[in-house]
Amino acid sequence: MSSAELDEMIKALSHPVRRDILNWLKQPEVYFADQEHPLSIGVCAGKIDQKTGLSQSTVSAHLATLQRAGFISSKKVGQWNFYSRNEAVIQQFLARLADQL
């Protein structure tokens, strides 16, 4: 992980909504228990929209930022996009951050 990548990841975490999304995706069964599709494929973007109370376009921008940073991955199933945490990348980020500080 380069310094530029680390900086991009830190910037991705600078917004409280993005941190909330990562937290919710850590325990989707707690925060998205009413999802019709299996949580094993991820959380539907529409459910994340509802949870934030923000517009679909705003949430999409936040999800795109988290995805570019590598913190989340997406899977398209039919017309829906499902999101889940990328635990390996999160652990690498935390280890790199610990080395830096």
From TrEMBL:
Pfam families: HTH_5. CDD domains: HTH_ARSR. It comes from the Bacteria. One of its GO terms (molecular function) is DNA-binding transcription factor activity. Residues 1-101 form the HTH arsR-type domain. Keywords: DNA-binding, Transcription, Transcription regulation. The keyword DNA-binding applies. PANTHER family: TRANSCRIPTIONAL REGULATOR, ARSR FAMILY, TRANSCRIPTIONAL REPRESSOR SDPR. This is Transcriptional regulator. It comes from Rheinheimera mesophila.
